[in-house]
Specification:
Number of helices: 28
Pfam families: ZW10_C, ZW10_C2, Zw10_middle
GO biological process, one term: mitotic spindle assembly checkpoint signaling
InterPro entries: Zw10/DSL1_C_sf, ZW10_C, ZW10_C_2, Zw10_middle
Largest sheet: 4 strands, antiparallel
Structural class: mainly alpha
Protein name: Centromere/kinetochore protein zw10-like protein
Helix content: 55-70%
């Protein structure tokens, strides 16, 4: 059909080319005749001019001559292109034959349609043809599947019947590629059920083969506890062949063929690790003894404990024992097979390296930086040990599994990490074991007065804070003398010690912070002292740190934290003091009706309680807190006390004459009994001064404005109306902190209503403060 179409197309193209060529020839002939006429007569351009007889004869002659030349040219062209013209004629003949054949086939195909005007029969015929073809394809597929199943079943039976484990393993490996789809992990939900049964049968065969070979390996490599020996036999005891009684190399080779070498090698690795390598690394002497017999080749590795053997410091004896064991395994178990040796190494090397690190290398890490040089012998022997294992193909040559070498290369870091842990343990023990119940005792459990680094003052600091800071300074001194990696760990240890103090102490002493206690004042000092010391660390050590750490390691960020915690502890104690004193003042019931004995005694007891509490606070704080902190804190408490008592007394709306004297007496009582406290607040160059003089009161009035008002109130209780008015007009009362409304209410409470009182009140109202 394709050839026929091509021929028809070629014929059509040839016909079109012929027509075009004929038309071109006609046009060319007309042009040639016109040229001959022009050359024959001068007026040939006029079509109406008739030709003469001579002209016609001349034209005929010229046409004949032209025809002869064309005939000769055509013959010459045909002769020179004979082959091409012959091929063209053959193709034309073939196209004609193909056209005739196509016409005959088309007539035969269309013959059934001559009697039927519609195409329904043709469509039904085509559908039946397609259905038949599909059915034929399905039967062919079923036949192929049945043939494949029969072949697989036959090969499975042959594999089971194979006498040699190697042959059986090879057959199983070949069937794996046919039954297991790696992309679907061996399961095919769309496969026929029979394939699933065949796959299950194959998996059962693999399991049987694997278990049998594994048992064979166990029987070849046994541990004899009575003699402390690992016995390796070429064939299992009591077997001379059979399914399980094969030689050890054959069993391992068969396991390798079915991709189960790790299963068999794992049993060997467990036996060697448990009974040989663990004791060998634990410093028990191991000797290798080879024994042979006529029927069975037997090799024995004896594990002989000995108390006399001692390992040298570089670990070469330990490494030698391990190499002896691995040589035995490589020679008598792995048979110098590099792949088997690598399997064994994969199963044992992680455990071997961990044991060596635990029992030897970690203990060999020096405790002092000066002994790091001596550790180089351990580094050298460890590198030689791993290189020896690489020559035995036990370790890969790319050094990815050089765990021991990596450990000894990082010994400086291990040393620093150990020191860091030791420093933190010491710090924790100091903080947990320190007794804050008796902090002022002398000796190891006491404290001492220290100078503040950035303040011209001293404060009492607990022994725990001093020891913690000693650890910090020791770590930073070691950092200054160490390499960058070690120095970094020491610096982190110093930070961790400070953070440990911050984490433990507030929680440990939380109950003491809920009440007025000397412990809270000491903890405030500790935090304050540590904040000052932290600020100084950069000035003391940064210049000595390795250049890489000078910008990385900082401590200044911790100073504000410790300072804030010190302020928080102090604020809490000050608030507790204020609350305690306020509760004592509440017992005076506003100092009302003190002219009555019962109320006076109650007010007096309240004042005595206030004095007692304040004196107790003075005793707790004065010897502990820094001088400036003590003055500031005590002034805050006293300010609240005097303000509260003054306010309560000024709120009394009616005072009898006797009552004013009683209130004045209570004020004097408080001032007299607080004299020692007042003296502790002023700067006095003469230590022999034990009383309050005029200059002392001036200092006190400057730092305690509420005390000045309190003392002035005592004077007002004994002054006349005019004197009070004069004091207001002079501004003395305003300078003491009195307001206009307070003075007016005070006058109304003491003096009865009269024209003088009204006049004085008017003067007070009109006179600005």
């Amino acid at each position: 059909m394709s050839t026929l179409g091509t021929s028809l197309a070629a014929g059509s193209q040839a016909a079109a080319a012929g027509a075009s060529s004929a038309a071109g020839s006609q046009v060319q002939a007309a042009d040639d005749v016109r040229e001959l006429l022009l050359s024959t007569t001068a007026d040939a351009s006029d079509p109406s001019t008739p030709l003469s007889a001579p002209d016609l004869r001349l034209l005929i002659d010229r046409l004949r001559l032209r025809s002869d030349r064309l005939h000769a040219s055509a013959l010459s062209f045909a002769a020179s292109n004979r082959g091409a013209l012959a091929n063209a004629l053959l193709r034309a003949a073939s196209a004609a034959d193909s056209s005739a054949s196509f016409k005959s086939s088309l007539d035969s195909a269309l013959a059934p349609l001559a009697s039927s005007p519609d195409l329904s029969d043709l469509r039904a015929l085509a559908d039946r043809l397609l259905a038949a073809r599909r059915e034929l394809a399905e039967r062919q597929d079923h036949l192929a599947a049945a043939s494949t199943i029969a072949s697989l079943a036959s090969r499975l039976r042959e594999a089971r019947a194979a006498a040699s484990p190697l042959d059986r393993a090879a057959a199983v490996a070949e069937l794996k590629t046919l039954l297991i789809d790696p992309d679907r992990s061996g399961s095919g939900q769309d496969d026929p059920v029979v394939f699933g049964l065949l796959r299950s049968d194959w998996e059962q065969l693999v399991d049987e083969l694997q278990v049998g070979l594994g048992k064979n390996v166990e029987e070849c490599v046994e541990f004899a506890p009575e003699g402390g020996k690992v016995v390796v036999r070429a064939t299992p005891r009591g077997h001379s062949g059979g399914s399980h009684g094969v030689e050890l190399p054959v069993a391992l080779q068969a396991l390798e063929t079915i991709d189960a070498l790790g299963y068999g090698m794992a049993k060997i690795a467990d036996t060697m690790m448990k009974h040989v390598l663990v004791p060998a690394i634990s410093y028990i002497q191991v000797s290798v003894i080879e024994e042979g017999g006529p029927e069975h080749s037997v090799s024995v590795l004896s594990v002989v404990p000995s108390e006399e053997i001692k390992d040298n410091k570089d670990g070469s004896n330990l490494y030698s024992r391990i190499i002896d064991v691995i040589k035995f395994v490589c020679k008598f178990i792995c048979m110098e097979n590099s792949k088997w040796v690598q399997y064994f190494a994969k199963l044992t090397w992680p455990r071997i390296s961990d044991l060596v690190i635990t029992h030897f290398l970690s203990k060999a890490v020096p405790n002092e930086a000066s002994k790091l040089i001596e550790f180089q012998d351990v580094v050298r022997s460890t590198v030689e040990f791993e290189n020896k294992l690489r020559t035995m193909m036990f370790l890969s040559p790319d050094r990815k599994d050089g765990k021991l070498t990596q450990f000894v290369d990082d010994v400086e870091v291990h040393f620093a990490v150990r020191k860091r842990s030791e420093i933190l343990v010491k710090a924790r023990n100091i903080l947990v074991q320190y007794d804050y119940d008796s902090p002022l005792e002398s000796g190891d459990q006491g404290g001492s007065v220290v100078d503040l680094l950035f303040q011209p003052e001293k404060c009492f600091t607990s022994k725990s804070a001093l020891l913690v800071m000693k650890l910090v300074h020791g770590a930073l001194k070691d950092a200054s003398l160490s390499s960058a990696r070690v120095a970094k760990e020491f610096c982190f240890a110093a930070r961790d010690v400070l953070l440990l103090y911050k984490a433990i102490v507030p929680v440990q002493l939380e109950k003491q912070f809920d009440s007025l206690s000397q412990v809270a004042a000491i903890v405030h000092n500790d935090f304050y002292h540590l904040s000052q010391e932290i600020l100084g660390l950069a000035f003391q050590y940064r210049a000595d740190f390795p250049s890489d750490l000078q910008k990385q390691v900082v401590f200044v960020d911790l100073a504000p934290i410790f300072s804030q915690m010190a302020d928080a502890v102090l604020r809490r104690q000050i608030q507790l003091a204020v609350d305690t004193v306020s509760e004592a003042i509440d017992g005076a019931e506003g100092f009302q009706n003190t002219h009555q004995p019962q109320h006076y005694e109650s007010a007096k007891f309240s004042i005595e309680q206030v004095v007692f509490i304040l004196e107790k606070i003075r005793i707790m704080w004065e010897s502990i807190l820094p001088r400036s902190t003590y003055r500031k804190s005590m002034c805050h408490v006293l300010g609240s006390v005097f303000s509260r008592i003054t306010r309560d007394m000024l709120l009394i709306d009616d005072m009898a004459a006797e009552e004013t004297l009683q209130l004045q007496g209570l004020i004097h009582l408080a001032l007299e009994n607080l004299s020692s406290l007042f003296l502790s607040l002023v700067e006095n160059d003469d230590d022999s001064t034990k009383f309050l003089d005029h200059d002392t009161w001036i200092q006190l009035d400057g730092i305690l404005p509420s005390l000045k008002k309190f003392r002035k109130l005592a004077e007002l209780l004994d002054m006349s109306l005019k004197s009070i008015t004069a004091c207001w007009e002079s501004g003395d009362l305003a300078r003491c902190g009195f307001t206009s409304s307070e003075v007016q209410n005070f006058i109304k409470a003491i003096f009865a209503d009269s024209p003088l009182r009204k006049e004085c009140l008017g003067w007070i109202v009109r006179t600005p403060a």
